[in-house]
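Might you be able to consider the sequence and fold that I enclose below?
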Amino acid sequence: MYIGQVSGTVVATIKHRMFEGHKLLLVERLDLDGAATAKYDIAVDAAQAGVGDRVLVLDEGTGARQVLNVEPWGPVRAVIVGIIDEVNTD
């Protein structure tokens, strides 16, 4: 799991049936200071996130498929499970 920021949307006219009805978003991983890193994921949106939102991403395939309640062998690796309001690192 990691904190990321949604930087864009992904549009696919042809896609696996498992993605039908789901929004795909481009998510940049953030470091502990909140700065973007060079890593990113294309994640399925399960939290109604939008561009600019800070989000919590589950990036483990089995857990992601369980959140989406899809077949256990499907091509899903990352899913946005929450929108973050605030992060405190005391």
